[in-house]
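User: Can you fold this complex?
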Amino acid sequence: MTTRSPSTRRRNGNDPAATAALERPREVAAAVEAWFARAGRTLPWREVRTGYTALVSEFMLQQTQVSRVVPKFEEFMRRFPTVAALAAADEQAVLAAWQGLGYYRRARLLHAAAKAIVERFGGRVPETVDDLVTLPGVGRYTAGSIASIAFGQRVPIVDTNVARVLLRVAGREGASGDPAIVAWAWDEATRLVEAASDPARLNEGLMELGATVCPASTPACLLCPLAALCRARANGEVGPVRAKPTPTRRTRVYHHVVVVRRGDELLLERRASTGLWASMWQAPTVEHDSLLDVDELAPRLALRVTGLSRVREFEHQTSHRTVVFVVHEARTRSRDGTWAARAALAEYPLSNPMRRILADALTPPSPNRPVRARSS
DNA sequence: AAGACGGGGGC
DNA sequence: GCCCCAGTCTT
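Assistant: Here's the predicted assembly.
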């Protein structure tokens, strides 16, 4: 019943198979919407839909799996229940509430977005993509997601889930994060949302389908509402879909951490405002591209210490680095700097590995306590 | 156009 | 180990 417009052919470029992909956008949209209405998960941000719940959940969900977001979202909403509360909060408190989620820049951008909403939009989350994308940390995807899911606007969205689903339905080869593929997917998603009965249901359904039924590695085609319309399945080519065309290599960096303890207190310093773990706190740390022994480390410390000794080391992986934490202990007579008591530690934003290091340092010494990470 | 940016879980 | 994930910003 669907006729293909001349422009459809043109906008799909030089891949004839791709054009056929969403030849029946109305059927695809209807199948996704019906499936989502039946099989969509119950999630905290789906219980009450407001611009603010959409804003917070979308920021947290950027490059982060739903299961990791759920507990953080609920905690965050209790701590900062409204845009105004978030805008008025201290940045350190926002970072601390983000603790453990990673990609901490998102926390700072969300805070900045809340302030912008108060200043420029009277404290109400804007409803259009054009307004939303003016907010810090809000790109094309997040803007479309908030506009469609919270406010029912008929706008498309493409994240890695949607791109992968469309790739498979179209029987197209490629990586879901490839810019050319993403551009093509936006085009297809636009056509789908125009054919949808309920744009919010379609968009959320496409993402949910990608996240649950049609993941990158092993899709569950028997459960898929699009199985009959899927070109990859018809071709018997439902293989893995890569996210990145070319993975980047990890570099190795050594963080020489010096734990300075005085009774129940630990000496802390703040990290730089850019880069890894920006603006978060740590025990005094010397970063170097190779392992330093104690004699090399001592002169690089800003603080005069005694009894500097290496305790243990362990590795921590981030997306672009292997961070080798070389943990030391030392004493000082200086009272300068920021000293944090155990009870106050929760208020300081700390990376997960740093939190473990400090927690270990405050654990009462026991000769039988097992070493929690490999020593060398 | 390519990198940087966290962390945990799947396999 | 490698790869993944409701992306965005910077260079």
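Residues 57-66, 68-69, 103, 105-106, 109, 136-142, 145, 157, 159-162, 177, 204, 207-208, 210-211, 215-217, 240, 242-244, 247 of chain A lie near DNA strand C (CB under 10 Å from a C1'). Chain A is about 45% helix and 15% strand.
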